[in-house]
Amino acid sequence: MAVLQTPERERTARGLTEPAGGPARRKTPYRWSALGFISPGVLLVAVLLYLPLLWTTFLSFTEYNGLGDPDWVGFDNYGDMFDDPAFLGSLGNTLLWVVGTLLIPVGIGLGIALLTWNLAGGVWLRLPFLIPYALSGIGVGLIWSFILSSNGALDQALAAFGITDTPRWLVDAPLNTVVMIVAAAWQGVGVNALLFTIGLQSIPKEPLEAARVDGARGFRLFGSILWPMLRPLTAVVVGLSIVASLKTFDIVQGMTKGGPGRASETLALTMYKETFVNSDYGLGSAIAVFLTIVTLLAAILYLREQLSKKHEL
Amino acid sequence: MTRILRTGILVVLGALWLVPVYLLLVNAAKSPLTFTTTESWIPTDFSLFSNIAEAMRLSGLGDSVLSTLVYAIVSPAIAVLVGAAAGFAIVALRLKHGFAWFVVIFGGTVFPLQMVLLPLFDAYSRVGLFDTQLGMIIVYTAISIPFSAFVMRNFFTGIAHSVFEAAVLDGATTWRIFSRVYLPMAASALVAIFILQATFIWNDLLLGLTLSQSDDVRPIVTTLSGMQSTYGGAQMSTVLAAGVLVSLPTVVLFLFTQKFFARGLALGQY
Question: What's in the GO CC field (chain B) (predicted)?
Fold first, then answer.
């Protein structure tokens, strides 16, 4: 956890050595040189990320199809958005993604980290879970659409057990969203396990030994020592999962393209379709802004949780 | 729980986790002649390489591989240097309002990519960067910078300021201190960021889908995505073989550099 604590240590150090005003007060002889070193980063980020960000926000208040000039329409796009059943369906699917991604990959990831903890050969036993993480979303989508296609690998396996009346995995909604969440979980478990492992390894030995001497084992040890110590990291993993699931795009694009119809779209996919397929730039931008606000709220929630819990470590 | 039981559970679960990988490999290795969807579980023959060759012929996958390789090497390489320079300015040179500058750069990573797609598409079309390799390199570099600056700033705060002062006394210029003292000390952090960003770029779909069009510019994942819808049914084994080709580099890189990955991920948690 040492790496995790760096910023805090540094903040404390800053507070002690640089009261009121901080570094701003100190005269540095390297002002121009420092500006030279920081400007490439600031320029690239400003031009390629911030300017587009502002332009998208502006476009979300306009009617625009890429030709001519954008027409200012105020909040019309946002109103249309919430009247649109496709958007509402997409919103529901995205919520399903958030919940599913929280329960399955985070839960199993924690389980694997605990099982491999202090286990001989733990590194090797973790390996199978890490392979899918290195695959692209499209790669994962490709494998799972092959498995789940009608009379695909899964149906054949089930048929061997006499189960032939299988649902159409990728066609029936909301089943298709659920199986895609399973595919995403298959991919995401490894990285969560890795993060929890880093957390477990950084737990100081003394309280653990003390608890063991007191006879704490298994679930008791977990409940009284491990879980409280892991909480800051759990906040991080949960926050990252929420933020990532809100932006789900690749796997859905790879497996159903949001279909059939628009039944399995997520917000990220709906935004992409409205913008680049329907050329409704205003509506697409409004969805992007909405997605950004929700993402920021989630990020703030977990950052706050994380910062307030930090001092317990 | 006993160690044996724990190992047992992990072995079973691990095997289960590898089943989709097994299915991918077995079916990607079937020649289109022996490929039938009714025998997914049983290997028939080994035509993986001819399938890959066929995939390259069908879709311009070969051109994609080359340009994606360029994106995944050049962009993170520039980004780690730019990010390190920013970290150096803030930490070692004690740039005025350094933390505010840092927030400006790091803030770029907080927003979903969806916010920048349309304006980039628009602007790229206007200035002639749409569907060019240069355009892709620029955008991949820009999105890699915030994370790089974040990690490098953290890393440099761990270096005592007396190192910088000693170098100044020796008469070194700031550029020399950066390139000869700080960068070499940060080698492991630079590699960690590079690997992480290279993998993200290799696996990118959204930017490729939006900002490129032709075979020799399109990133490989985007080409694979296109193949999947174009050659779906009949050429399934070919498409799966393309999937193997696309996935292999990141999986190999990842498995060989797990430690760096773990470090990069731990650093990237804010």
Answer: plasma membrane
